[in-house]
UniProtKB/TrEMBL annotation:
This is Ig-like domain-containing protein. Keywords: Membrane, Signal, Transmembrane, Transmembrane helix. One of its GO terms (molecular function) is integrin binding. InterPro entries: ICAM_VCAM, Ig-like_dom, Ig-like_dom_sf, Ig-like_fold. The lineage of its organism: Eukaryota, Metazoa, Chordata, Craniata, Vertebrata.
């Protein structure tokens, strides 16, 4: 009481706390201690001469000590959530100065869990919003608590708390998730961590069990929804209708009117089709599941003819025609017979035995 009385007189006489110019060094400058563990800090006077040094605290205080300039503050087992030790130094002229030591008593979460596991809630539906709750039990202080929601290796939400209570409390974090098809099969978890500052131990994080997300979504084709396919003389065409979806899509096919009767025996419940009859026309494929139906259209056309080959064939026939014409002029006689000696033919005389 006398120390605080003197301290009050000094404030009144100087107009400011003596501690404003107090030459005291704390080591460490702030303490993070886990509940139930030990605490140690040193207070050192930087004055050349002092009358004494001490620690003022309702828990673990040390009375005025003389003949030393460094005094440790020790608690073997921290069993309180609020500790506010203050180191004070008495100078030879009776002046006093003091410096508080920042002490944070913490407790890592006893447990972290997602309130309703996703596997129990059933599959999500694409486009709908879902509310998930992460429960954190017995954590202190909540003002240092951060909650991270993970989807796979990515953090998708981070929450902190404005909480003044220093003793353990239970907290909850809410995640509002709009289901997307890319979420299907991913792992969701939440992690609670105390932000104890740089250099502090990193074992303050506690993570919930991971839960797999199932999302129902309608079919979506892997390739474009309209395709043009050319018939080939060398090999059969294959029409691909592969689609993703949950549940797995089922397939059905429609054929051009001209070959519908002939195609009744086709296996149409598959994501691809090799028509038995390679016929041009409009084909379609339907992919369906409980979430919707998509239709893919194919236009099958005849391949354009090879004009080079056609020109060569025509050229052969033209050349053959020219040869036949020339041959007819040079080697056909008037009576319709052939002669290789037509140049020696004399009118009115036989040209020889044919």
């Amino acid at each position: 009481m006398l120390r605080f009385f003197i301290f009050g007189i000094l404030i009144a006489s100087t107009g400011k706390p003596v501690s404003a110019a107090c030459k005291i060094e704390m080591s460490p400058p702030r303490v993070m201690v886990k509940f139930g563990h030990s605490l140690t800090a040193n207070c050192t006077s930087l004055y050349s001469e002092i009358a004494g040094i001490g620690w003022e605290s309702t828990y673990g205080g040390v009375g005025l000590q003389t003949g030393i300039s460094t005094l440790p503050f020790k608690i073997d087992t921290v069993e309180r959530w609020v500790i506010q030790p203050t180191c004070y130094v008495t100078l030879p002229n009776g002046d006093q100065c003091e410096e508080p030591l920042s002490v944070t008593v913490y407790q890592v979460p006893e447990s972290v869990s997602i309130a309703q596991p996703l596997s129990e809630a059933g599959p999500m539906v694409e486009g709908k919003q879902y509310r998930m709750q992460c429960d954190i039990v017995n954590v202190a202080p909540a003002s240092l608590l951060s909650v991270y929601w993970h989807k796979g290796n990515k953090i998708i939400y981070h929450e902190t708390f404005n909480e003044s209570t220093l003793s353990p409390v239970n907290k909850s974090s809410i995640l509002n998730l709009t289901a997307q098809r890319d979420d299907d099969g991913s792992q969701i978890s939440c992690e609670a961590k105390l932000d104890l500052g740089p250099g502090e131990l990193n074992h303050s994080a506690v993570q919930s069990k991971s839960h797999e997300v199932a999302v129902l979504y309608p079919p979506a084709f892997i390739n474009p929804e309209t395709e043009t396919v050319e018939l080939s003389d060398r090999e059969n065409i294959i029409l691909y209708c592969n689609a993703t979806g949950n549940p797995v899509p089922v397939y059905s096919w429609d054929f051009p009117q001209a070959i519908q009767e002939m195609s009744k025996n086709e296996d149409v419940n598959q994501p691809f089709l090799i028509p038995s009859f390679q016929f041009p026309g409009n084909y379609s494929c339907k992919a369906s599941n409980t979430q919707g139906t998509r239709i893919k259209y194919f236009t099958v056309i005849e391949a354009p003819r090879d004009r080079t080959t056609l020109a060569a064939i025509i050229g052969v026939f033209v050349a053959l025609g020219v040869l036949l014409f020339v041959g007819g002029v040079l080697f056909v006689t008037r009576d319709g017979t052939f002669s290789c000696n037509q140049s020696k033919y004399l009118r009115g005389q036989p040209s020889g035995t044919v």
